[in-house]
Specification:
Elements: H1 5-37, H2 39-51, H3 57-96, H4 101-115, H5 120-134, E1 146-147, E2 153-154
Antiparallel strand pairs: 1-2
Helix pairs in contact: 1-3, 1-5, 3-4, 4-5
Length: about 160
């Protein structure tokens, strides 16, 4: 039986980081929606923007459109982080009793891509996924040498 402690630890740490990312992104989105929906802040922002002579009302509409796009992008990030967390949990369950390490490795790598191409969470998941694919069971005495049919012995790779 292969010891999968490193994969478990890396996956659990990345799951905790993903949960923290989900919580912080949702808090940011709530704060963003509060600022966007407050009429006093909206009027003050509009007055400040129109005070600049280089900005006209059409530019202000474009800025509001970008704010709406940003809100949708933040929700997309939350959804991707939730999917990444679910895949990480599925991977942890599959690796816990060494049930299916290949499936766990696939889940970890997909979860790493969904969590962000390059950040700490995804790097931990990539390492756990690669370990799931590369760890081999240790050689025991009964399978250390195999008869090659010519009277010699060969050790399997």
């Amino acid at each position: 039986m292969i010891n999968r402690t490193a994969e478990k630890v890396l996956a659990i740490i990345s799951a905790v980081f993903t949960v923290l990312g989900i919580i912080s992104t949702v808090v940011m989105m709530v704060f963003y929606n509060f600022l966007k929906s407050d009429p006093m802040i909206q009027k003050e922002f509009e007055a400040e923007m129109l005070a600049d002579p280089t900005i006209n009302p059409e530019d202000l509409e474009w800025i509001y459109g970008m704010f709406n796009f940003l809100g949708g992008l933040i929700w997309l990030i939350v959804i991707l982080l939730i999917i990444s967390l679910i895949l990480t949990i599925i991977g942890i369950v599959n690796i816990w009793k060494n049930k299916n390490p290949k499936l766990a490795g696939i889940m970890f790598i997909i979860a790493g891509v969904l969590a962000g191409i390059i950040n700490l969470t995804s790097i931990l998941l990539y390492i756990a996924g690669i370990l799931c694919f590369t760890k081999k069971p240790p050689l025991t005495n009964e399978n250390a040498y195999v008869d090659d049919g010519n009277g010699g012995t060969m050790r399997p790779l």
